[in-house]
Design brief:
Layout lengths: L30 E12 L3 E12 L2 H21 L7 E13 L5 E15 L5 H11 L4 E7 L4 H25 L4 E14 L1 E7 H6 L15 E13 L1
Antiparallel strand pairs: 1-8, 2-4, 2-5, 3-4, 5-7, 6-8
Length: 237
């Protein structure tokens, strides 16, 4: 009786995921090749507040001084909440001329723009800090995003889920053919994080709502979903 030859492939791609290249595996007699997606949702461990400070004035020097004053107010808010200003990072700083095009092109001022980012481990400070920054009126936008910095455990859980699904698929196809899965011969793993932006805040909105409770008050932050794709080759008996 000729040895049975089984080759089975499953490719599951989650909605919105980027196309990915999967490794090619040489088909082997008496084996089953499967692929599956898994996921794990972990609670975020860090809140990231991002701010954009943008100031325009007649000269680059005066625009820079005003931007520096706004950033210093941000530092004061950070200190008043018992945080080290080192928790605040600068993404970029730009100085650009502003033009008037009619009746002819001429420089009418300069705009200084900088991007600030603050990471918080203590979520109870989110409401006071965002409200104080809104009242200070120093940034054009505020964006709050919950992230997961300690990713290792979540990735491992997602891989375990993907492998369990792949093994179940292998067991199913083997059982349907009157065989059974013996051992893992080959595996490849890809993991992905699906970040979620929770709350954008604009200056005009936050100024009107300064006296109201923070939009995130009493709510639980959404979890961070980590997904994994596992390709596995099993031998059969």
């Amino acid at each position: 009786m000729k040895a049975a030859y089984i080759f089975f492939a499953i490719l599951l791609v989650s909605v919105g995921a980027l196309a990915q290249e999967h490794p090619s595996v040489t088909a082997q007699p008496n084996s089953v090749y499967v692929g599956a997606d898994g996921k794990f949702e972990a609670p975020p461990d860090t809140a990231q507040i991002q701010m954009n400070v943008s100031v325009q004035d007649e000269s680059p020097q005066s625009a820079f001084q005003k931007a520096s004053k706004n950033v210093d107010q941000v530092r004061q808010v950070i200190r008043s909440n018992g945080l080290d200003t080192k928790a605040l990072s600068v993404g970029f700083l730009s100085v650009q001329p502003v033009y008037e095009w009619k009746p002819k092109q001429r420089v009418i001022g300069y705009r200084v723009t900088t991007d600030l980012s603050l990471k918080l481990k203590d979520f109870s400070k989110i409401g006071p800090i965002t409200q104080q920054l809104a009242e200070a009126n120093v940034s054009e936008t505020q964006t709050l995003n919950y992230i997961l910095e300690n990713m290792d455990e979540a990735k491992n859980k997602a891989v375990e889920d993907a492998y369990r699904r792949a093994r179940n698929s292998a067991d199913t196809i083997a059982h349907a053919s009157g065989r059974s899965v013996e051992e893992l011969s080959y595996a490849s793993v890809d993991t992905f994080e699906n970040p979620r932006i929770i709350m954008p805040r604009q200056r005009s909105v936050s100024a009107m709502a300064a006296a109201a409770p923070a939009p995130t008050e009493e709510f639980t932050p959404q979890g961070v979903t980590v997904t994994a794709h596992v390709n596995a080759l099993f031998t059969l008996k």
